[in-house]
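seq:
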Amino acid sequence: MFYARRNAQGEIITLSVEASAENQERLDSNHPDVVNFLVKSDEVFYSLDTDLIRVIEDLVDVLIDKNVLRLTDLPLPAQSKLLSRKKVRNTLKNSLNILVDNDEGLI
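struct:
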């Protein structure tokens, strides 16, 4: 059971497990509006997490390039994850490279 607060458009903007002056509308956890709110929140966190992961990867790369950190300083699982993600990014980057450097003979 949740207690919700809605905006002027009727969308849930906050949920709480306890009633308050702001959150008074009582809704079941399987109510479509509750499910929609939680899914949207999860998508926002996922997007922020993926952005932060990329920042951390770039930071590790910079520290390694400047010899502040060695990849081998990190635990083996971290090394493996970083190398795997770098490999996937490079593979995707190369597969999306549709520009041809030398276009002789194309037409």
